[in-house]
């Protein structure tokens, strides 16, 4: 097992993109819109490698932003040849790109394979054609199906990125997007609840009161359900919510929407606590002892102890003890008379079952 998974991100600006998706301002997201020279990229990679190379890490060069395979072929090849040299000299282990579903073909995949690309992430966003059209995405769900199948036929890792809460979508459409994405068997997924970014078409729709993004609490409930849909099928959710940066913050480049720097923790707390309450229903829980890793216990405690408060209240706990055990992956819970063990998988499956029984969260259209 490598010590750490290290990503060397290289942000490719909007250049060459034929579309103007309503949610996107690549210049804002990638932090620049100028050309990047080969020397800049090499210097950037070298700077990263200096800090990590002496350890046993799994290191990836990842081309983010823009639509990699939609940019000029000569630029793609220039960028990939740099990454490929690092891979051939074994200074990195893998190369990752992200792109649009309609910018994938067998010929493109041949080229990516020639340059040793290992991971292709598709910006799926939604599997609902009406939503894709409303956000001016410029492709359909059929492109997602076709490109996913083409990538799966290769020796490559397939990633799906989806955006719950888009203009014209609804809870039902977002859940269906996750279910249809899962059916295409991606290996990894990213869930980005839609935000209103400065200088986008969404900002104008929002200002005209024609579109309201999800509220933070309703997005946490919906995204938890989507997370569990992927996770129970063993699809690793590698990112939930946009990464905070100095500019990516509410009041800066984010105008509105469900953004929180600890978004993933909010999701995990919701899933863990809901499922634990369900699993302990009917037991005598006034005295409770939890043995788990610190990470899992932090998920239960939650931000500002919100998870713990919910657990205490729902289970009428009078006395709660915690035993730290970083060697266990399970959450062991001792009540007055019982001892129960919950794995992360148990909690995910329970959460998904509860969500299904409730018919998923209350329906809402995001106009
Ligand atoms: S295709 Fe990608 S880069 Fe182009 S506008 Fe849409 S999100 Fe932005």
Describe this structure in words.
This protein has 367 residues and is an alpha/beta fold. The chain has a domain at 268-357: hypothetical protein PF0899 fold. The chain is 40% helix and 18% strand. The strands form 3 sheets. It has a 7-stranded parallel β-sheet. The chain has a 4-stranded mixed β-sheet with strand order 11-10-12-13. Helix 7 runs parallel beside helix 9 (216-231) and helix 10 packs across helix 13 (344-357). The radius of gyration is 22 Å and the shape is globular. Bound molecules: iron/sulfur cluster. The site of iron/sulfur cluster has 11 residues, from loops. Iron/sulfur cluster is lined by residues 14, 17, 19-21, 24, 26, 66-67, 100, 123.
Task: Give me the secondary-structure topology.
Blueprint (H helix, E strand, L loop, with lengths): L4 E7 L14 H5 L7 H15 L5 E7 L8 H16 L5 E6 L6 H9 L4 E7 L3 H6 L6 H12 L4 E6 L8 H13 L4 E4 L4 E2 L3 H7 L8 H16 L4 E5 L13 E3 L6 H17 L7 E6 L1 H8 L4 H10 L3 E6 L6 E4 L4 E4 L1 H14 L10
Parallel strand pairs: 1-2, 2-3, 3-4, 4-5, 5-6, 6-8, 10-11
Antiparallel strand pairs: 7-9, 10-12, 12-13
Iron/sulfur cluster binds next to loops.
Return the CATH class of one domain. Alpha Beta
Task: Find the CATH topology of one domain.
Answer: hypothetical protein PF0899 fold
Question: What coarse outline follows from CA principal-axis ratios?
Answer: globular
CATH architecture grouping of one domain = 2-Layer Sandwich
DSSP strand tally:
13
Helix content: 40-55%
Q: Taking strands numbered 1, 2, ... along the chain, how are they ordered across the largest sheet?
A: 1-2-3-4-5-6-8
Distance between the termini: 46 Å
């Amino acid at each position: 097992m490598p010590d750490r998974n290290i990503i060397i991100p290289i942000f490719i600006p909007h250049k060459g993109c034929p579309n103007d998706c309503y949610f996107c301002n690549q210049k804002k997201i990638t932090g620049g819109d100028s050309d990047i020279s080969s020397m800049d990229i090499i210097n950037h990679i070298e700077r990263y490698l200096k800090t990590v190379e002496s350890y046993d890490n799994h290191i990836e060069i990842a081309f983010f932003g823009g639509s990699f395979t939609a940019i000029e072929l000569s630029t793609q090849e220039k960028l990939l040849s740099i990454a490929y040299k690092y891979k051939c000299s074994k200074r990195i282990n893998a190369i990752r790109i992200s792109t649009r579903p309609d910018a994938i073909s067998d010929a493109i995949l041949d080229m990516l394979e020639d340059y040793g690309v290992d991971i292709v992430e598709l910006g799926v966003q939604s599997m609902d054609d009406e939503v894709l059209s409303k956000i001016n995405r410029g492709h359909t769900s059929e492109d997602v199906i076709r490109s996913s199948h083409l990538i799966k036929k290769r020796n490559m890792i397939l990633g799906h990125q989806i955006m719950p809460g888009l203009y014209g979508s609804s809870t039902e459409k977002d859940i269906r997007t996750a279910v249809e994405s899962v059916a295409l068997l991606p290996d990894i997924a990213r869930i980005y609840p839609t935000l209103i970014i400065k200088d986008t078409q969404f900002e104008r729709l929002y200002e005209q009161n024609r579109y309201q993004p999800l509220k933070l609490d309703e997005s946490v409930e919906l995204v938890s359900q989507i997370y569990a849909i992927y996770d129970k099928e063993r699809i690793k959710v590698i990112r939930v919510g946009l990464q905070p940066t100095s500019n990516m913050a509410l009041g800066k480049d984010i105008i509105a929407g469900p953004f929180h720097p600890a978004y993933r923790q909010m999701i995990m707390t919701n899933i863990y606590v809901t499922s634990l309450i369900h699993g302990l229903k009917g037991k005598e829980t006034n005295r409770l002892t939890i043995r788990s890793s610190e990470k899992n216990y932090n998920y239960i405690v939650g931000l500002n102890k919100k998870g713990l408060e919910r657990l205490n209240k729902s289970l009428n706990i009078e006395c709660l003890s915690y035993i730290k055990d970083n060697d266990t992956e399970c959450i062991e819970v001792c009540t007055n008379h019982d001892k129960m063990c919950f794995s992360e998988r148990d909690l995910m499956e329970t959460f998904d079952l509860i969500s299904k029984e409730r018919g998923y969260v209350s329906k809402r259209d995001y106009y």
